[in-house]
Amino acid sequence: MEKFTSIILLTDFSEPAKNAIKYAVDAFGEEVEYNLINAYYARTSSATLLDLNDMLAKESLSGLESEIQWMKNEYPNLNLSVFPHSIFGSPVDAIKKLAIDHDHDLVIMGTKGASGVESVLFGSVASVVIRSTIVPVISVPPNCSFTGFGTLVFATDGQEIFNNKVVDPIEKLQDKFNTDVTVFSVDKPGQHSDLESLNLGLKNAKYATVEDEDVAGAVTRFCQEKNADLLAILPKHTGFFDRLFHKSVSKQLIEQAQMPILGLENV
């Protein structure tokens, strides 16, 4: 049985980031190592702002030290293994750099779930990380606390061709949390998805389909009906994702979802 061993925590030292850290520790406790990443950079290469990068680097290191101390204060009875990483670049670059030398099971990060400027600045980060990272990502909405991984909905159109290793994180969740999995698809009128033919290898998985033009709405309603703890999606190289995340829908779903979203890595 494969187990979770290493989790990346992406932080900008905000309250949503702290909430995601608490979600991760409440879920995995002291059984895994945590790699706490803060990515920093100034969008310029001018000589004047080289000093700014030095300042940001110092602030990043100081912030990581404070965050680790905060984690220890929050969980005094746990022997947490937390490794800080202050990395110059974007969050996606930072994750990729960290993943070069070591395998990680998950990235867990917060979303602000806000509108306007805050949404653009941080909500878009969650969208970009989910689309671009080489490690599966759980995005945690604000004020969402961990209550278990009892029920997971895996949204797919049944047409995708992918390596079955993509579902490894779901299998690990099944092993650790006895997670109930439903593979779900939203068909266009007249279309039929044969989900069972995918042979995903998920234990005791259930299958369900509905016809609806509003893919995001149908997925959201189904998750609510199932009282799902987690929605899993394949964010890259899939037509279903493009339908689910048409125009701004991806941003809205990730930012406004009431449950965490697991973005799987389609290797």
Features:
globular; Rossmann fold; 10-stranded mixed sheet; 2 domains; 267 residues; alpha/beta
Query: Under CATH, the topology of the largest domain is which?
Result: Rossmann fold
- In total, the number of strands is 10
**Which of globular, elongated, flat, extended, rod-shaped describes the shape?**
globular
Helical proportion, percent range? 25-40%
Question: For the report, how would you describe the main beta sheet?
Answer: 10 strands, mixed
CATH superfamily of the largest domain: HUPs
Radius of gyration: 19 Å
pLDDT < 50 runs, ≥5 residues: 114-123
Average pLDDT: 82
User: Termini distance?
Assistant: 21 Å
